[in-house]
Write a structure and sequence with these properties.
This protein has 893 residues and is an alpha+beta fold. The strands form 7 sheets. An 8-stranded mixed beta sheet has the order 5-4-8-2-1-11-14-13. It has a 5-stranded mixed beta sheet with strand order 16-17-18-20-19, covered by helices on one side. A 4-stranded antiparallel beta sheet has the order 9-10-15-12, with no helix packed on it. A hairpin with a 6-residue loop joins strand 1 and strand 2. Helix 5 crosses helix 8.
C-alpha cells in the first residue's frame, strides 16, 4: 500500500506524488493478453530495469518449487552489504531457455550450480546462467554478491540519523525491488519459502517475516538465524535492522512488536498503535473466517519511507509521519488506525492469496482499502469513518476517473515499470468504492462468504480476477460477467440525475437518468438510494430513502410515486454508489437557500462536495462559491463537513489568487477576508479540540498578508497563544516556511536559530524546504543546481522537499529562467533507470501557468513526450488538463 502522510511538507507529497495512468483506447473493452510463450521455445530476455510480463510467464513455466537460503552481512560503517543466496528450484523438462536471476546493479563474485562453479553473465539487471549448466528437476544455484545500500527508499535502504549517527536499514520492495537485496526470481507468482542468516552489529535489532530461533555472538557482531518462513512472494519479504527501540504486546496467541528509531522513541504513543492493531486482528479473524496465518506481527516505523506503509509479511513498515512530535488530532489517529487495518488486511488478501501478476494490483490495494474502512467503521473507537472515506479516498477516485488519465480498473500491465504508475486514484479509490457498493448489490453476508471462500480455496496460491469474482458470484448465486465487464474492464465516470413531477403535492413520476462521457460511453448497473428531503421550519429532514437498482439510460423509481413532493432529491443517499450526481434545479435552489438546515451531516457533506465539483467543472464561479462558503461555514457544526468546506474554500481561492496574479481581476481584499475568517474561527474554536487544531493549520498555511504573518511570528516567539494549543516543533517549522516564503520579519536569522535547535532528520528537511521557498534568485540557483547536477549527494526523500518548494505558484517569474533547463532534464532522467527520481521530478517541476500560452506549450509536450515513460507522459497530460480547467474557471470571473 502506498499512501497517506502527515505534517506540512509530507502532506504535500499526496499532491505531487500521485501520477495517474493513461486512458485505454476509447470505447474499447479491455481483454486479458494471451501469451503463447513456453519453456519449449527459445526466449531472449530484454535488457531493461523492468521485468516484462511475457518473460515472467515463461519463467513461471520454467521453474517451480522455489526456496531460498540467504546469508547476508550488514553493518553500520560500510556503504555496501554482501550476501550469498542459495536458490533451490525444479527446472521444467524440455527447457530450451537460459535461466535469468534478477539482481539490480550489484557485483557478482561467483555463481555455482549444484555445488560447482558455473559460467554466467551479469549485465546490470539480471544474471544469466546458460541452460547447458542446468539439468531437469531439482537444482541449487548459489550466488555470492555485493551491492551498495539504496538511498531512494527502495531495496535495502540505509539511513544515518543526524541526531546520533545511528544507522538504520529497512527494505521496501513493491513491485520489483526485492532483487536489490538478493538475487532471485522477483515475480509474484513464483512464491517461495525463505530461511536467513544475518550478520549485524551486536547492538542492532534484526527483523524479518519470522522470529529468530538463535542468535550467536561473533566479536562486535551477532549472527541472527531465522528458520524457514511460510510460502509467499518475494515483494513482501523483508529485512529491517538497526538500533531500533522496541515495544511489545500480545493479541491472543499472536506476539506484537513495534519498532522506531531511538531518537523518536519519546514521541511514540504505543496505545495509538497496539489498540487499533488488536481491534483489526479481532475483526479480520472473524470476518474472513481464516485465522491470521503468519504467527507473529511486527510494525516498523521507518525513516525516509516513500509511501504511507507496506504490507511485508508479519513485518509491516510505516512512514515516520505517523509519529507526531506534538498532540495528534482525532483525524490523524483515525488515519493511523486506517493504515494499520489496511496493511493487516493484506496479510490475508495479497500475502496469503496473491495476484499472479501486476494487473491484479488494483484488487490487492482496493480490497485492503475497503476492508480497512469497514473495520474502522465497525470495530474501532472512531466515528463517521464513511464520511472520511467519502471526502478523501472517494474524491480521489472521482478526480482520477474524471481526468484525461483515467483507465479501466483492470488493465494489462506489460512490465513492472508500468506497475509503478498504477498506484493511483483508480487503483485505490475507485476500486475500493466499487467494492464498497458490492455488498449492497450482492447482499452483505453473500459478499463476506464469497471473500472467506476465496481465501480458504486459494491460500498460499496465486490468483486472477475471475477467481475472486467467481467466488462472489457463487456466494450470491448471481452471474457477475456483465457487472465485471462494465465496472472493471471499462473506464469512465457516470452521472445520474433525477427527473420527477408532482401533482397535488404528491410525486406522480420519477426516473433516474444515467449518462456517460462521450469517450467512455458505458452505462452501468448499481444499487443506490434516492433520498427525498422536506423542509419544515428551519429543518430539512429525510422523509424517505428509496433503494433502487438502476441501469441503462433511464430507470423508473416506482416506489417514489405517491410520496410527498420533496424540496430536495438526492439520488445517492448515504453514498451507496460510485457515481457523479447532477442535482435538479429545484434541489439546487434548496441547497443554496437551506444547506445548513439539512439535518443529516453526511448529506451536507455530499452537497458541499457537489458545489465544489461545480467550481472545478467551471459551472459555478469560484468567487460565488467563496462568498457562499464564508456566509455558511460558521453555521456548520460537524467537523467533517467543516473540513470539507474549508478545503474547498482554499481551493477556490487558488483560482482567485491566479486571477489576481495574472491581473485579470484583483481579489486581494477577498483573500484577506478569508484570512480574517480563519483567524476568527481559530480564536472561537474550543480549547484543545480537533477544530482548533484544524483551524490553526488552515490559518498558518493561508496567511500571507503582513497583519497575519505578524501573528505567526508572535506565535513562533511565544507572544501569542491559544489555550489548549501547543506549538510543537513541527508546528514551528510550518510557521517558518510561511515566513521564509513571504520574506517576513527576520526570517533568515529565525531559520538559522531553528536549524540549530532541531537537527533531527525532519528538522533538516524542513529547514531546507523553508529556505528553498524564499523568492530569491541566489536561493533558487543554489538548490536547482543540487537537483539537476548533484542529486546523488542527497537522498530522494530530501530531494523531494527541495522540488516541492522551489517554485510556488506566485514565483513564476523566478521559475521562467529555468524552464528550458527543466524540460531538457526530463529526457535525461527518462533515459536512466531511477524511476523514483523521474516521477518526483516530473510531478514537481514541469512548469505550468493558467494561460492559453502555457496550455499550448503543454499540448506540444504531450505530443513530444508520447514515447516517454508513463511517469512523465501521464504527468504532462494531467498538467495540461488542469491548466485547461483553470482557464475555464477564470472565464467565469
Amino acid at each position: 500500500m502506498k499512501f497517506t502522510k502527515s505534517n506540512q511538507a509530507i502532506a504535500a507529497a499526496l499532491a505531487v506524488s500521485v501520477v495517474a495512468i493513461s486512458g485505454c483506447e476509447k470505447n474499447t473493452a479491455l481483454t486479458k493478453p494471451v501469451v503463447q510463450q513456453s519453456t519449449q521455445q527459445p526466449f531472449v530476455r530484454q535488457q531493461s530495469e523492468s521485468l516484462f510480463e511475457d518473460y515472467a510467464k515463461m519463467r513461471a513455466q520454467q521453474v517451480s518449487d522455489v526456496s531460498y537460503q540467504l546469508e547476508i552481512t550488514i553493518g553500520n560503517t560500510s556503504e555496501t552489504f554482501s550476501g550469498v543466496t542459495s536458490i533451490n528450484f525444479d527446472l521444467a523438462k524440455g527447457n530450451q531457455n537460459d535461466l535469468t536471476i534478477d539482481f539490480d546493479e550489484g557485483t557478482v563474485s561467483s555463481v555455482k550450480v549444484n555445488g560447482k562453479e558455473a559460467p554466467f553473465t551479469y549485465e546490470k539487471w539480471f544474471i544469466t546462467v546458460p541452460k547447458s549448466a542446468l539439468s531437469a528437476g531439482e537444482n541449487i544455484v548459489t550466488v555470492a554478491y555485493e551491492r551498495p545500500y539504496s538511498t531512494d527508499g527502495s531495496g535495502l535502504h540505509r539511513f544515518v540519523d543526524p541526531e546520533n549517527g545511528e544507522v538504520y536499514l529497512y527494505t521496501d520492495f513493491e513491485p520489483y525491488d526485492a532483487n536489490r537485496l538478493f538475487p532471485h526470481f522477483d515475480q509474484p507468482d513464483l512464491k517461495a519459502t525463505y530461511s536467513m542468516q544475518v550478520t549485524a552489529p551486536a547492538h542492532w535489532q534484526v527483523i524479518t517475516s519470522v522470529r529468530e530461533n538463535n542468535i550467536e555472538d561473533k566479536g562486535d557482531n551477532k549472527i541472527w538465524h531465522f528458520p524457514e518462513s511460510a510460502k509467499f512472494s518475494s515483494y513482501i519479504f523483508s529485512l529491517h535492522a538497526g538500533n531500533y527501540a522496541v515495544w511489545e504486546d500480545q493479541f491472543e496467541d499472536i506476539p506484537l512488536r513495534l519498532f522506531a528509531r531511538q531518537s523518536l522513541a519519546e514521541y511514540v504513543k504505543t496505545e495509538e498503535w497496539f489498540t487499533p492493531t488488536k481491534q483489526s486482528f479481532k475483526f479480520f479473524n472473524d470476518y474472513f473466517g481464516v485465522r491470521y496465518p503468519f504467527i507473529k506481527y511486527d510494525q516498523i516505523v521507518a525513516p525516509d519511507f516513500n509511501a504511507g506503509a507496506m504490507e511485508n509479511v508479519a513485518a509491516v513498515t510505516f512512514n515516520e509521519g505517523y509519529i507526531s512530535r506534538g498532540e495528534k488530532s482525532t483525524r490523524s489517529k483515525m488515519s493511523l488506525a486506517n493504515v494499520i487495518a489496511h496493511e493487516m488486511a493484506h496479510m490475508w488478501f495479497g500475502n496469503l492469496v496473491t495476484m499472479r501478476w501486476w494487473n491484479g494490483l488494483w484488487l490487492n490495494e482496493s480490497f485492503a482499502t475497503y476492508m480497512a474502512n469497514l473495520e474502522v467503521a465497525e470495530a474501532s473507537d472512531f466515528e463517521n469513518n464513511w464520511d472520511v472515506f467519502y471526502s478523501g479516498t472517494k474524491q480521489w477516485a472521482y478526480r482520477s476517473d474524471d481526468s484525461v488519465n483515467t483507465h479501466a480498473i483492470e488493465l494489462p500491465v506489460p512490465s513492472t515499470g508500468d506497475a509503478l504508475t498504477n498506484f493511483d486514484g483508480i487503483t485505490y479509490g475507485k476500486g475500493a468504492s466499487v467494492l464498497k457498493q458490492l455488498p449492497y448489490y450482492l447482499g452483505e453476508e453473500n459478499f463476506r462468504i464469497g471473500v472467506s471462500n476465496y481465501l480458504k480455496k486459494f491460500s498460499y496460491k496465486n490468483t486472477e480476477l475471475e477467481d475472486f469474482i467467481g467466488e462472489l458470484g457463487k456466494a450470491a448465486n448471481m452471474d457477475m460477467e456483465q457487472w465485471t465487464q462494465d465496472w472493471l474492464y471499462n473506464a469512465g465516470l457516470n452521472t445520474i440525475k433525477v427527473n420527477y413531477q408532482c401533482q397535488a403535492d404528491k410525486i406522480s413520476t420519477m426516473k433516474i437518468v444515467q449518462t456517460a462521457p462521450d469517450d467512455y460511453p458505458t452505462l452501468r448497473e448499481q444499487r443506490v438510494q434516492v433520498g427525498l428531503y422536506t423542509l419544515s421550519g428551519d429543518s430539512m429532514s429525510l422523509a424517505k430513502a428509496i433503494p433502487v437498482t438502476y441501469k441503462g439510460a433511464t430507470t423508473e423509481v416506482t416506489d417514489a410515486i405517491g410520496q410527498s413532493c420533496p424540496d430536495l432529491v438526492y439520488p445517492n443517499e448515504a453514498d451507496w454508489g460510485f457515481v457523479k450526481v447532477d442535482l435538479d434545479e429545484q434541489s439546487l435552489a434548496a441547497v443554496e437557500k437551506h444547506i445548513n438546515a439539512v439535518e443529516n451531516a453526511t448529506m451536507r457533506l455530499m452537497l458541499w462536495q457537489s458545489l465544489a465539483d461545480s467550481v472545478r467543472d467551471a459551472k459555478l464561479a469560484a468567487d460565488k462559491f467563496v462568498h457562499f462558503a464564508i456566509a455558511n461555514i460558521e453555521g456548520e457544526q460537524d467537523y467533517n463537513v467543516i473540513r470539507k468546506i474549508s478545503a474547498s474554500l482554499s481551493t477556490a481561492m487558488q483560482y482567485l489568487n491566479t486571477a489576481t496574479r495574472l491581473e485579470k481581476k484583483d481579489y486581494s481584499s477577498l483573500y484577506q477576508d478569508v484570512e480574517d475568517l480563519y483567524l476568527r474561527l481559530l480564536e472561537k474554536a474550543p480549547a484543545g479540540s480537533d477544530l482548533q487544531k484544524m483551524w490553526y493549520g488552515r490559518y498558518v498555511s493561508f496567511s500571507k498578508s503582513d497583519h497575519h504573518l505578524k501573528n505567526l511570528l508572535a506565535i513562533l516567539q511565544g507572544e501569542l497563544g491559544y489555550e489548549g494549543l501547543t506549538i510543537d516543533q513541527d508546528k514551528r517549522w510550518g510557521i517558518l516556511a510561511q515566513l521564509n516564503r513571504y520574506q517576513f520579519g527576520n526570517y533568515v536569522a529565525l531559520l538559522d536559530t531553528e536549524k540549530a535547535k532541531d537537527n533531527s532528520d525532519t528538522g533538516v528537511k524542513n529547514a531546507i524546504y523553508a529556505e528553498v521557498l524564499r523568492p530569491e534568485e541566489a536561493v533558487k540557483k543554489k538548490w536547482f543546481d543540487v537537483v539537476i547536477n548533484n542529486p546523488e549527494n542527497l537522498k530522494l526523500s530530501t530531494l523531494r522537499y527541495i522540488m516541492w518548494g522551489l517554485f510556488p505558484s506566485e514565483q513564476s517569474v523566478l521559475e521562467a529562467p529555468y524552464k528550458e533547463k527543466i524540460l531538457a532534464h526530463i529526457p535525461t532522467l527518462n533515459e536512466g533507470s531511477d524511476l523514483g527520481l523521474l516521477s518526483a521530478f516530473a510531478s514537481s517541476m514541469i512548469p505550468s501557468e493558467c494561460t492559453a500560452e502555457s496550455e499550448a506549450e503543454l499540448a506540444k509536450l504531450v505530443k513530444q513526450y508520447k514515447d516517454m515513460k508513463p511517469q512523465v507522459l501521464k504527468t504532462v497530460k494531467a498538467r495540461h488538463q488542469n491548466v485547461g480547467r483553470c482557464i475555464k474557471a477564470l472565464k467565469l470571473l
